[in-house]
Design brief:
2 copies of one chain form a homodimer. By secondary structure, the first copy, chain A, is an alpha/beta fold. In chain A, 36% of the residues lie in helices and 22% in strands. Chain A has a 6-stranded mixed beta sheet.
Chain lengths: 451, 451
């Protein structure tokens, strides 16, 4: 596929410029900022392939962008999302998160790693394939949603209403990255998630802060109460302390699989700039991340802590907590266990509100789409990819793929220092163009592989 | 002024509809939402008077809306703001804060009490005066800014650049309300404010929450540390515990003034639905609110606590704190005392960021504009207004009026249950139309009163 690689090399500059343009457009599903504009930008890009993209809304969803192109024995579903996490410069960004900056071979911008680079290189790859070879050897279906970062709330209804649009023999999932050793990592599934808001209300109204001299301020006691509840949710090692969330024993097969994955806690610690819980071996750390549920405090506080000023005596404290769920545990189960736990610990006054819920998903390494990606990776990267049974993060893979029995695998431009969901999110440009070249091979291999 | 009152009665429905329209337009200076549209809506309304409004920006300010109309011996400056505080339904609103609802003779909407009703009835009053009497007996200057709720950061530069536009013999200030006994309250000044953000950073990066099984989550310790610092800022009675913020002794005149103000803590407690610090007499409570500095926690928290979901292991805790300053204390002084205090208590790692600062202001009760308002109130309300030396809240009165020696006084539609800055903000419609009628008399009296 030399001609394909040459074509990409020739379009390097314009492809990169396009990526910057995508990153410049805010698309924050949490607040709605820029969502419609982003959906239209994606659809326009797909038109450029000669496809006839559709913007489909389900109820009051943000638009799903759908397009289909090519013909052949096999059909590939490409799932991405055009929405990104919120970002404020004061979160620690070195620059405006929506003003992409290239530095040291990296492109920094909110959403570039999750998921605009992956979204775009796949489109560019199809374009390059068409330009060089005149036709695709298979049918490609793009499904690009705008609600992944808020838990894909409308996807079940979308799948129900448009089941015929997504039928496929395999799916390339939105994310994907290389590991610490530089080898591509393929995930064959992902963890589920239950994201809840816990809140506690004072028995007084919120009030203008000019009364502070004589009105009791409940911020500290409210927040203290919430903290006490949060502390009961985890044991000393940070594991969920809820009854019912104990980890089932691992199969011999999964234990063996764990041993094949290179994972060095010290490297994670340095590359991510975080502190790991002490005394974890690589295998044990990995076992926890892939096969244990987690409980994480995404935030807790009382009153106003957003940007700028609000002058009020607060009357409410809130915590945002997410539970990641290994294969076999459902969000409904966890919510029931959480309610029972708070009751049992005397926190009856704490309200639980479910903000997102996704099932875990997992597929076999023997599916044709997985084999196609492995072969393509060997060709371009010259190494064997690392196979993760599932990825520590979450997504609607169960709804979109597991229910329809469409094997899914990740392949993309992320790397361990990409700061996904955090400040200074970035990708390495070399990863971008290597993934772009590899994707042409994936199309090729998947079209021709035996079952 | 019977014809004037009849004119208002005849236009009651359209005036009210106009108020709803103003409230329907979000205008949140904190986020920028709807600001330009709101400025244009205000300017268009002023055009309706036959004035030629200007939208003036200073640096990257939101537009100041300025208009001048009428001629006469005296000039009246009318200062208002078209921006409002942030509002989310989940803060406790019974409905969308930007979908005004009329219930039990009240209009509920974010910003109606602070400050859209006051903004609009003054314009409508001038309109009615012109319609009934053909001309105004004085020159009226409207200055309506869009940054009051974020501390009027550009007003000093505006005043410097456009000093000629604001020269006047008296000023009607943006706010104003009735007291618990139903009598209008006139404020002759207001407290200053220093609003700071205190923050503390973990020595790890923020990170995607899918790593929670093996990464330490610093949310609780960070927030605990911030809580410890906040606890040192106040004594057991909630008074600022900083050196240098002791209250200076009150003059005999001010003590006597305090005795003239009807103020019942029990009523405040019930009407506002809050808990007062125990054991405060009316005079003592009032003394604290008007003549003591305050320290209030507007919010504290770690990580993400905003609407919707964000899945991250936090690395920063933040507190928003405001100090209200009695006449004689400046924001600069308080910030110095705060820095020294945190140093002295071992909280060197806590960052202080100033988000807003306003000087206190205070004027004489003998100014012509004050006498004009008192006389007008007597005529329309049939009672003597209560004179507050200053109001517990803050605003840029020092910058706009004190520096230029333009006596200012409040007169408006607020009342003790209006929930300013909180959920379910509202005004009573009877207050609105009574204020509208009264304002015609204010114009009249101010034009003709002796010095």
């Amino acid at each position: 596929m030399e001609a394909f690689d040459q074509y990409i090399e020739k379009h390097r500059k314009s492809y990169l410029e396009e990526l910057r343009r995508f990153c410049r457009q805010p698309s924050i599903s949490n607040t709605g900022k820029g969502m419609q504009a982003m959906a239209e930008m994606v659809a326009e890009r797909l038109s450029g392939l000669g496809a006839e993209p559709r913007l489909i809304t389900v109820g009051d969803s943000y638009p799903y962008v759908y397009a289909e192109i090519g013909e052949g024995r096999r059909t590939l579903l490409i799932y991405n999302h055009y929405d990104v996490q919120p970002a404020h410069r004061e979160d620690g960004w070195a620059h405006d998160p929506f003003d992409p900056v290239i530095q040291n071979g990296r492109l920094y911008a909110r959403g570039v790693a999750d998921n605009k680079a992956n979204l775009l290189f796949r489109i560019q790859s199809v374009e390059a394939y068409l330009a060089v070879y005149g036709r695709l050897p298979l049918r490609v279906r793009f499904l690009i949603e705008g609600e992944e970062e808020i838990g894909s709330p409308h996807l079940p209804r979308f799948v129900e209403s448009y089941a015929d649009l997504i039928q496929a023999d395999g799916c390339i999932w939105e994310s994907g990255r290389t590991g610490h050793n530089g080898n591509p990592v393929l995930h064959l599934g992902l963890r589920g998630i239950l994201y809840v808001e816990l809140s506690i209300q004072a028995d007084q109204r919120g009030m203008h802060s000019s009364w502070a001299n004589i009105v009791e301020n409940p911020a500290l006691p409210l927040e203290e109460r919430l903290r006490q509840a949060l502390q009961t949710l985890m044991d000393e090692e940070g594991r969920p302390a809820l009854n019912g969330l104990e980890t089932p024993p691992l199969s011999q097969e999964d234990l063996a699989l764990l041993e094949t994955i290179p994972f060095d806690p010290a490297t994670v610690q340095v590359e991510h700039g975080v502190t790991l819980r002490p005394g974890l071996s690589g295998v044990e750390a990995l076992r926890r991340v892939l096969f244990e549920p987690s409980c994480n405090i995404c935030g807790l506080g009382a009153g106003y802590t957003g940007p700028g000023i609000k002058t009020v005596i607060p009357n409410r404290a809130v915590a945002k907590v997410d539970f990641r769920l290994p294969f076999g545990l459902t969000p409904d189960e966890v919510e029931i266990h959480l309610r029972r736990h708070l009751q049992a610990h005397g926190f009856e006054e704490i309200q639980i509100r479910r903000l997102a819920a996704l099932h875990p998903a997992r597929f076999s390494p023997n599916a044709a789409i997985v084999r196609a990606v492995r072969e393509a990776v060997r060709t371009v990267y010259g190494v064997e990819p690392t196979i993760y049974p599932l990825m520590p993060a979450s997504g609607p893979m169960y709804t979109l793929c597991q229910v329809q029995d469409i094997p899914a695998v990740t392949f993309g431009t992320g790397y361990p220092g990409d700061n996904t969901h955090a400040a200074n999110e970035n990708i390495r440009l070399k990863d971008y163009f290597r993934a772009l070249r590899c994707f042409g091979r994936i199309l090729d291999r998947f079209a021709s592989l035996e079952d």
